[in-house]
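Dear U.,

For the methods section draft, I wanted the exact inputs and outputs in one place so we can describe them consistently. I've listed the two proteins in the order they'll appear in the manuscript figures. Please don't edit the token lines directly; just add comments below if something needs changing.

First protein:
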Amino acid sequence: MDQTMMQQGPGLISILLYIGIGIFVLAIVGYVLAVRTNKANTSRLKKAEKQVLQKKYKRNLMISHVLLTLAVLLTGTSLIQQSSDKYSIEKLNFNAPIQVTTDKDYGRGHSEMPLLYEMKIPTSGTHSPHDLKFGFYTEKPSTEMLVHNLEHGDIIIHYHPDASAELLDKLRYITNFKKAGAGVLAVPNPVVPSDQEVVVTAWTKTMQLQKYDDASVGTFIYQHIDKGPEQIPPEIRRGGGTM
């Protein structure tokens, strides 16, 4: 399953957008006709004929106002819906067969001090009291903060610092997905095994992939996002942490 298929939006939204644009064009035509009617030479017309033209002008103007309002509502609604649906977590429900390791739970205490972990890419344990914003990172944040993100149900994709441009583009895209108060981070990590392209983690969960593929990563995210031991509502945890 490729990224193009993941990004396809519902046809209904596109239809609403096209209808909105069409109505907008009709509104503009109506305004043009109204202006022409208003500017018509009425010096030789009788009073009754002038009144007819004036009524026609007002009618065209009113219809144009209504059409413009409808166009704005339809277009705005479709664009907002398209933006929200583009990164709907349901798009990641590929139900692909994946191999996930359940790791030992090393606890979830907090410490401001640098820490040593049993695992090279830890999925639990004592960690920093600070967590990170969701998104794509070009420099590796501290492991202590990354573990805190896992505690809140975030997904972290670890990639080689010299990853290909194609992979980086895919990672930038996938980090836009969120569910409730949890999101996705992609971070460079030199300890990713040389025979693996990425290591994807959740709280006490690890999946290694020799080759990144959308279906496997999407399935992992769909199954494990927002499953950390400390879940925070989205209205409080907007976009992740404060660092």
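Second protein (the one for the lower panel):
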Amino acid sequence: MKKPLAPKHPIEIIQHGHKRVDNYAWLRDENWKEFISGNLNFKNPEVKKYIDEENEYTKEATKHFEKFQEKMYAEILGRINEDDKTFPILKGDYFYYTVTVKGEDYPRHCRKKGSLEAAEEVYFDTNIEAKEHDLYILKGRSINEANTYLAYAFNTSGSMEATIKIRDLQTGKDFDYQVENSNGSYMWVGDTDIYYVERDEFSRGAKVYSFNIFEGPEKKKLIFTKPNEYSNMFMSMGQTSDKAYAVLNLASGASSAVFYHSLKGTDKEFKLFVTGDNDISYELDHWDGNFYISTNKGNAQNFQIFKVEADHDKIIDMKNWEVFVKESPSLYITDFDIYAGKLVIEANNTTTAIPELSIVDIKTKEEKKVKFQDEVYHLSMFGAYDNNSEVLRIYYQSPVQPSQDIDLNISTLEMKVVDTDIVPNYDPSLYKVRRDYAPSHDGELIPLTIITKKDFIEDGKAPAFVYAYGSYGLGMPVGFSSNFYPLVDRGFSFVVAHIRGGDEKGNDWYLKGKMHHKLNTFKDYISSCEHLIKTGYTSAGMIAANGGSAGGLLMGAVSNMRPDLFKCVIADVAFVDMINTISDETLPLTPPEWEEWGNPIKSKEDFEYMMSYSPYDNVRAQNYPNTLYNSGISDEQVTYWEPTKMVAKLRELKTDDNLLLLKMKMNAGHAGASKRYEWIEDKAFNYSFVLNCFDMLD
């Protein structure tokens, strides 16, 4: 089949005295905002025609491995327990848990009253809710304290918008209204009132409303409007551990502002708790008359926790803040909660990037460390519905150990494994995981998580699959996934590179991978691949690279810089047209992104630095690896035209005959498929693409 070639309609752009020509700007359809809500009403039929041609080409170019893809699908499915149930958690008189059923795409949310022997009540069956939709994303569900009403938020287009509904759990029926245009952040206040965040025209949270569920949103009350100085920030909402205060978190990049008000009195006005300058952030909680604040204020790059009396006059004068938990040179605080008068602190070791958990008694300041044995593991905390509970639910897993539900007593540190995921057709004794460190261009050591078969030989003959992200301070913890093993079983090493831009080794690890340090992110990835080659895990040209969103930018950048390293690249919802995107203030995410990448509109220095690596602007006439771009037409975070333009430009300029594919889903957004069996189909397609590139279709 003939490869699609997009027509060139050049436009000239002059920015800070620099002239560039964009031949494919026309692929941004004027009606693109309608796509976000699922209405594919193209203004320019040529845009639709080109996308259809690319999708058809992808279908034809991969037709020969359809049978293998079916085999891969069955293999992935064979390691999933299709009939499964989470271990119950007690809230009041009810045990809550989730059930998945073979043949169903979505989970059922269930509960039992009083005893695990009681009759099962399915209070929310996502399959029923999603029945009329190609895409259904449940963005949140929350039950009031009395266990009588459910508030849930969902989206059916793939956009960032959420619709909120209320369900009477006694009758199983929804109220006859719904809340539109929320960003998905909401909470119960008492048993019958809802707070929720409403979006502005730029899709950012702008206002907070409250309403009584028996009156509905028609009688909503405005209780907060985001001040103009915070207009570029995103907004989320929650409560303190003791449910004494409502907390509004405004964030952009690594900066934040926090507003609060008491839920115990009649004063419902949100007051400013604290505001952060660039790269200063805050997280707060409350217990027994005092606030506890985790922050990097005062050059505490690994964060420290302050304590201040819950008196507004004392709060606003930081002289009254006392250091409660000092910054550690070796531990970076990532999160904390309060249960039964104890701080439960999650942190990362800044050398090994391994998570740690500690318990600090608020009254005595005694600190206890929770010990785990594996060299590499992932830890997450559910906690408990009751914040006076001394027993918390934590989830523990490693790349070779399926997830375990553990009940941790925070007084005695006794741990009890109450449930372990059952993974069919999986034998952990066949595999090994290790943590290695790759020296980067400047001597920094990049942590690598490497998963292989136990009999893996480091002779440079094996292929490697290397995943990374490296942006926004989002670390990439590596827990268990049965999806590692179709490649590992075929001789691959499966590698996660914990590169700068994430926060695995601390806040400084993030700062050294953003703004004018962004090139470190790409150089770290390249150095990681070179280390794998040097240590015999693989060879040049034997690496499959993968990343999504900002990790897709990484894929585009390293493909431009070092195409010789890779056999193939998979770039998911890839942020590749960054100069044009970050120069367009009308796009929802652009102003908040300036703190992450720079502002190419106002700053020539920012513009020139970003131009040095922007994937779309650095495509040139050279050989490129086999490449697959996956995207969704309704993606509001990385708009569809970015990967589409990238593919068009690569087709024009690349000098090889390797595969170049665009797979544009016409019913998905940034998160991709919401149905679990469709998600498995997509994973099987990606792996089939990889194995086809390595001539390993068995």
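Candidate sentences for the figure legend, describing the second protein: The first strand starts at residue 11 and ends at 15. The two ends are 25 Å apart (CA to CA).

Thanks,
Y.
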